[in-house]
Amino acid sequence: MSMFSKENMNEIFEDIKKNLVRGVKDRKHTFHTPVFCNIGDQKAIESRVVVLREFDSNNMILNFHTDFRSPKIADLMQNNNSLFVFYDPKLKVQLRIKTISSVNNQNIITEKMWERTKLVSRKCYLTQKPPSSVTSLPEDGIDDNLKGKEPTLEESEKGYKNFTVVQNKIYQIDWLYLAASGHRRLKIILTDGAPSFHWLIP
Ligand SMILES: Cc1cc2nc3c(=O)[nH]c(=O)nc-3n(C[C@H](O)[C@H](O)[C@H](O)COP(=O)(O)O)c2cc1C
């Protein structure tokens, strides 16, 4: 647990970045699985857990992977406003991070990440029916011949067209430190990569 005073804006900002980096690398860190929210069809709010795959601290971009056929892709292309929520009980920190999303499919970014995607993860992109489509049976949508095993490298390549990297450019961070010693809240606005800080009443 980090032991800085929670009174120094720059230290808080550095600590946020450090923990987002950890969230990508450490599968046990609570920041590995944030909630990602966007505006869906009919303007309803949609939220779901995703795996944090990359954090580019220079450009302040958070990435996750998904299937191009998933309804959130069409929704994000319609409205690219999005939000991540992170909470870590040990750090006592909640982060609400506002982002602008961009969808990458069959481009240089997906090519690079697909190469690094293990066969077991590639399998997620091999369903016949699109994610979120209605089915008459309880099933995972994977072909019978792939049940209970990894696809071969060749079989896995059929998933590439579905493999999608959603990049999310951060423009605002709401940091909340909830502790008996005194709650603190800081809003960080990023303009062309430069942070400006505003204390808020928690
Ligand atoms: C621990 C965990 C990690 C998940 N990671 C992802 C992910 O990285 N990408 C993704 O599209 N869905 C992920 N999901 C599934 C989503 O939460 C969601 O059920 C699915 O994407 C369908 O959401 P949609 O109907 O909003 O498209 C994950 C679920 C859990 C429980």
Would you kindly provide a written description of the structure presented here, covering whatever features stand out?
It is a single chain. The protein is of the alpha+beta class. The chain has helices at residues 9-25, 71-78, 108-115, 119-122, 153-156; strands spanning 35-39, 45-49, 54-56, 61-67, 81-88, 93-105, 163-177, 184-191, 194-200. It has a domain at 9-108 and 165-200: Pnp Oxidase, Chain A (Roll). Strands 1, 2, 3, 4, 5, 6, 7, 8 and 9 form a nine-stranded antiparallel beta sheet that branches. It is elongated. The mean pLDDT is 95. It binds flavin mononucleotide (FMN).
What topology emerges from the helices and strands here?
Layout: H1 9-25, E1 35-39, E2 45-49, E3 54-56, E4 61-67, H2 71-78, E5 81-88, E6 93-105, H3 108-115, H4 119-122, H5 153-156, E7 163-177, E8 184-191, E9 194-200
Antiparallel strand pairs: 1-2, 1-5, 3-4, 4-7, 5-6, 6-7, 7-8, 8-9
The site of flavin mononucleotide has 14 residues, from strand 2, strand 4 and helix 2.
